[in-house]
């Protein structure tokens, strides 16, 4: 079961990273100010690489050690992808 969960998280993370690389602009907005302007921005590679690494590394750690905290961090990495797509 945990192997399939890990493989699913990794697959969703890869698909999200590839789709983001194709669809999203070169500079990603990660935070919006109260006035609606772009607050925190990152280059595309960093903005997509950080949640990818979070998801993949902690999914593998969950598979190896079966610690629920690792699973939570990997799911948070997937949620960051959703926020990046919504903000951009």
Query: Averaging pLDDT over every residue, what do you get?
Result: 90
Using the alpha-carbon principal axes, give the shape. Answer: elongated
Question: In what order do the strands lie side by side in the largest sheet?
Answer: 1-2
Strand content: 5-15%
How many angstroms does the end-to-end distance come to? 34 Å
Your description of this structure?
- By secondary structure, this protein is mainly α.
- The protein has one domain.
- 73% of the residues lie in helices and 7% in strands.
- The protein has a two-stranded antiparallel ribbon.
- 20% of the residues are buried.
Set down the secondary structure blueprint.
Blueprint: H1 2-23, E1 27-29, E2 41-43, H2 44-65, H3 68-87
Antiparallel strand pairs: 1-2
List its salient traits.
mainly alpha, 3 helices, 7% strand, single chain, 88 residues, 73% helix, two-stranded antiparallel ribbon
């Amino acid at each position: 079961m945990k192997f399939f969960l890990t493989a699913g998280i990794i697959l969703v993370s890869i698909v999200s990273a590839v789709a983001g690389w194709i669809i999203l602009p070169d500079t990603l907005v990660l935070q919006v100010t109260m006035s609606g302007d772009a607050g925190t921005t990152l280059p595309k590679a960093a903005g997509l690489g950080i949640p990818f690494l979070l998801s993949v590394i902690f999914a593998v750690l969950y598979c190896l050690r079966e610690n629920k905290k690792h699973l939570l961090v990997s799911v948070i990495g997937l949620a960051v992808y959703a926020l990046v797509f919504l903000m951009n």
